[in-house]
UniProtKB/TrEMBL annotation:
Residues 37-111 form the MHC class II beta chain N-terminal domain. It comes from Loxia curvirostra (Red crossbill). The keyword Endoplasmic reticulum does not apply. It comes from the Eukaryota. This is HB2J protein. Keywords: Adaptive immunity, Disulfide bond, Glycoprotein, Immunity, Membrane, MHC II, Signal, Transmembrane, Transmembrane helix. The gene is H2eb1.
């Protein structure tokens, strides 16, 4: 009986930690919700696109696209959520401003680190313009 109890405790722990069930097994009742933000930069910050995706159990149900300027439903439930969120104009202005607040701000912070490292090979830095090559 001790082995059965230990196996049951192990199974319960794995289900609580969110381990995927075996093929053909019932779901455990553990659900996952995720929000993913993406910034797409074209020609520096000249053209920036902000996309925020809302995902539930590995399925994207609604997303915000700054090129469109509003939420778009990807499932029937997502369409209802998008209608509700799009109806709040004050919140939509806040969401539209995310391009500047989130993307452009972070681009300015990370550019010195990312852009200056382009072309680095071992201890040599490849110049990006009229500057001279610098050997470290």
């Amino acid at each position: 009986m001790g082995r059965v109890a230990a196996a049951g405790a192990l199974l319960a722990a794995l289900l609580m930690l969110g381990a995927p069930p075996a093929a053909g097994a019932e779901l455990s009742g553990v659900f996952q919700e995720m929000v993913q933000s993406e910034c797409h930069f074209i020609n520096g910050t000249e053209r920036v696109r902000f996309v925020k995706r809302f995902i539930y159990n590995r399925e994207q149900y609604v997303h915000f696209d700054s090129d469109l300027g509003h939420f778009v439903g990807d499932t029937p439930y997502g369409e209802e959520v998008a209608r509700y969120w799009n109806s709040d104009q004050e919140w939509m202005e806040h969401r539209r401003a995310a391009v500047d607040r989130h993307c452009r701000h972070n681009y300015e912070l990370s550019t010195p680190f990312l852009v200056e490292r382009r072309g680095e090979r071992r201890a040599e830095r490849v110049p990006s313009g009229p500057a001279l090559a610098v050997t470290l």
